[in-house]
Specification:
The structure holds two protein chains of two kinds. By secondary structure, chain A is of the alpha/beta class. Chain A has helices spanning about 10-15, 30-35, 75-90, 100-105, 150-160, 180-190, 265-280, 310-315, 325-335, 345-350, 360-365, and strands at about 5, 20-25, 40-45, 70, 95, 110-115, 120-125, 130-140, 140-145, 165-170, 190-195, 205-210, 215, 225-230, 235-240, 245-250, 255-260, 290, 310, 375. Chain B is of the alpha+beta class. The chains are: A alpha/beta, B alpha+beta. The interface of A and B includes residues 30, 49 and 74 of A.
């Protein structure tokens, strides 16, 4: 029987469409437990490739013959080997092209909606890692928010819709992934905005992003109001785009809220986080559609693959927005926090421009799921 | 540490470091030590897990610049 490559894009479609897929993950157990391809109707079997060197006979009865099968490993090599063995044993299988490395880097652009006067808003879903970035387009101009280090994808996308990137924003200094913001700004001569309170140690020039800034994208009046909403980091800023969308950064997610400990100051920032979520956000229109910088679990994806929900709905349903007692809130966001993201200190230093790791090292630093939230 | 055999797996990508390690181990007697040099970062967790599941002992591991060194005692 045959075996073939399946791309991250094809797997993403299966996640969005809630299709079935049997994943044979041949990485070691620790890596699999830590981070895997998530899909609502995906089934899993984890057998490390090094236990299959003598053959796949022993696992043949554990693999269904009536389902699509995808073999997954870290970088492709081992999944290719196992896929070939399974195919020799009579199964039709695929292997993940580029492995989890490619999965971690795949970005799927999803159109979130139209803006006044013909503009458009796109969400780039980094499906493997749960990072979300945004492109606001109007009249041939584009703004990017929270761009990842896969800069070519945004540049090519902007070109494909004939838009010039003029402004690049980071809502905060990221700790879970390496920002592509500065590099994109350099390549396109766009203005790079960063909250100054998060940027005290950065080694490059930037435009200070402060509450009350208004930026117009294109000739049509699309304003990006920045809203100072500290708590995840001291400088964290949210945007209201076109009076319709609230880009909440890492402050508020669909089913969770931001964690205040990644810059080492959980206790100090609890009060800010509470004020941002329980006062500043309360003053906004409940009709705003919240577009966060992350999703945590695959259930947060809408039918079309986007991650978006009305602010009013989040006030009703998001547990983190419904804790009356301040002490209870303090406990939630400072105690029993999930493990910190892989290499988060090095990632912060990279985003400050203090260290300049090569691409291979950057990949390695970003391995694993994002862990920016508390639930 | 004294090794009975040295395996150069530098520059090889997964799964080759382990494929070669497994072959080299076949030539050793129980209690003898294989020293492995690799550059694939993934080798670290995988060799440890492989050794454990095969009843071998990962006695020591070191990192020198970009080279990962392992000493595995055959079980």
């Amino acid at each position: 029987m045959a075996f073939k490559a399946m791309t991250s894009k094809e797997v993403t479609k299966k996640v969005f469409n809630k299709e079935k897929l049997f994943i044979l993950d041949v990485r070691n157990e620790t890596d699999f437990e830590d981070w895997k391809i998530e899909g609502e109707n995906f089934q899993y079997l984890n057998i490390p490739y090094f236990e299959l060197l003598d053959g796949v006979e022993e696992i043949m009865d554990k693999i269904p013959s009536d389902q699509e099968i995808l073999v997954v490993c870290a970088k492709e090599g081992s999944s290719l080997m196992v896929a070939e063995m399974l195919s020799d044993a009579g199964l039709d299988v695929s292997y993940l092209e580029g492995g989890m490395k490619a999965w971690s880097e795949h970005l799927e652009p999803v159109k979130v909606g139209n803006l006044t006067d013909g503009g458009e808003l796109y969400q780039f879903v980094r499906i493997g890692k749960g990072c979300l970035s945004y492109m606001v387009v109007s009249n041939g101009e584009a703004a990017l928010i929270d761009a990842t280090r896969m800069t070519d994808i945004y540049l090519e996308f902007a070109e494909s819709i004939r838009a010039t990137i003029t402004h690049v924003f980071d809502t905060h200094l990221h700790a879970d992934h390496i920002s592509g913001g500065r590099m994109i700004a350099e390549k396109t001569n766009a203005t790079y905005w960063l909250p100054p309170k998060d940027a005290t140690e950065v080694t490059f020039d930037y435009e200070p992003l402060e509450g009350g800034n208004d930026v117009t994208i294109g000739e049509t009046k699309i304003h990006i109001h920045s809203l100072y909403s500290p708590g995840h980091t001291i400088g964290s800023t949210s945007f209201v785009v076109d009076e319709k969308y609230l880009l909440s950064g890492d402050i508020l997610f669909i089913d969770s809220i931001g964690r205040p400990d990644l810059a080492g100051l959980a206790e100090d920032w609890v009060g800010d986080l509470r004020e941002s979520l329980y006062k500043r956000y309360r003053e906004l229109s409940e009709e705003l559609i919240v577009l966060p910088a992350h999703f945590m679990i695959i259930d947060e994806l809408n039918e079309d693959g986007s991650v978006a929900e009305k602010l009013g709905t989040l006030f009703e349903k998001n547990h983190g927005l419904n804790i009356e007692d301040e002490n209870e809130f303090r406990k939630l966001v400072t105690e029993n926090l999930p493990p910190q993201p892989n290499a988060y200190q090095e990632i912060r230093e990279t985003n400050m421009g203090k260290i300049n790791p090569d691409t291979e090292k950057q990949r390695e630093m970003e391995i694993g799921p994002n862990r920016c939230a508390v639930r | 540490m004294e090794a009975n055999k040295v395996l150069d797996a530098k520059g090889l990508a997964c799964p080759m470091p382990i494929v070669k390690t497994k072959k080299a181990m076949n030539d050793l007697e129980s209690g003898q030590v294989l020293e492995i040099h690799a550059t694939d970062k993934g080798a670290k967790n995988d060799l440890a897990a492989w050794a454990k599941s095969g009843g071998h002992e990962l006695v020591k591991h070191e990192e020198e610049d970009t080279i990962l060194k392992f000493w595995i005692k055959k079980g």
